[in-house]
Amino acid sequence: MPQTTQQITEEMDLVAHWLEIAFPDRVEMLELAARLRFHRGDLDKAEQLWRRAISIDPTYPFAHHGVAIVRALRGDYEAAISEYRETLRLSPRAVEPLLELGDVLIKSGKIDEAIDLLENDFPSTVESVWRYTMLGECYLRKDDLTKARLMYELALSRNPNDSSALYGLSLALVRQGYQSEADKLAQRLKQLRESERESEREKRRRFDEREDLARKLAEAYSGAARFLLSRNAVDQSKAFAQRAIQLQPDQPVARQLLAEIRLKELASLAPVTQHVSPGGGDHPTNTQSQGEMPSDDSSNKKP
């Protein structure tokens, strides 16, 4: 098992390369390879793999989402918007790309489009502080101070310590002429940002790059294991899931897959045990250890 950050990044590269070579026409595996490349900071290769997946299956939303993220990071907002819209067309209930699209629309100056998206297309059952702060910024830019203030207040009602909402609300209050209220918010914001800076310093101090990369690699192994199990490559799937757990002991998908594999193994033994008498001596299926279920914690959480 890799012990250093460098060893884990090298394994990430090897796994990504293997996924590309072994499954050149499987969009699920190309997406996993692209994600690994993305985590390694190779945006060009990640986008290339996501685009290859799209060329194989234009209806695969994860690949469109990946391209959208890369285009947005590069400041190519028009291309990003197009890919985000395609992602949402293919996966209309996805919240994350919808919020990201709203952010890109604001950055590109398409304020009315952002408002329409965030007001009308956002799922009514989902609460999002980010959505309200973005709407607040939109209405602030349109000089609709009443709506801007309402949106920032809605954000703060869900997270009283959201610095973006506090800052936006203070701007709206100043422009409405409520200077004293704005000053109180400004003081609160100053204290909050000092606390955030201290928290960020502590986070950086505690941040373990090796652990973070190991978790991402474990997610890729788990995704590959799930695909392999769906293709009845049980032994290979089991090996990948076990590798994921070595990297991240609490990896939920890998643990679920190992439990599923164990159930398949037990099911395959059932016809044999039916022909064994209660006093069947030393037949391996009569031993207690063969009948014990694993204690792994299974979960339906996807990688």
Notes on the structure:
This is TPR repeat protein. With 303 residues, this protein is an all-alpha fold. The chain has a domain at 127-207: Alpha Horseshoe (Serine Threonine Protein Phosphatase 5, Tetratricopeptide repeat). It has helices spanning 5-22, 27-39, 43-56, 61-73, 77-90, 96-107, 111-121, 129-141, 145-158, 163-176, 179-206, 209-230, 234-247, 252-273, 288-291. Mean pLDDT is 88; it is low at 277-303.
Percentage of residues in strands: under 5%
Largest sheet: none
Helix fraction bin = over 70%
| CATH architecture level-2 label of the domain at 127-207 | Alpha Horseshoe
Order of helices and strands: HHHHHHHHHHHHHHH
Q: Any low-confidence stretches, pLDDT <50, length ≥5?
A: 277-303
Mean pLDDT over the residues: 88
* Count of helical regions: 15
Q: What is the CATH topology assignment of the domain at 127-207?
A: Serine Threonine Protein Phosphatase 5, Tetratricopeptide repeat
Shape annotation: elongated
Name of the top-level CATH class of the domain at 127-207:
Mainly Alpha
Rg for CA atoms: 25 Å
In oligomeric terms, what are we looking at?
Answer: single chain
Distance between the termini: 21 Å
How many DSSP E strands?
0
Task: Please identify the structural class as seen in this structure.
Answer: mainly alpha
- The CATH superfamily of the domain at 127-207 is Tetratricopeptide repeat domain
TPR repeats: 27-60, 61-94, 129-162
Pfam family, one: TPR_8
Protein name: TPR repeat protein
Coiled coil: 175-205
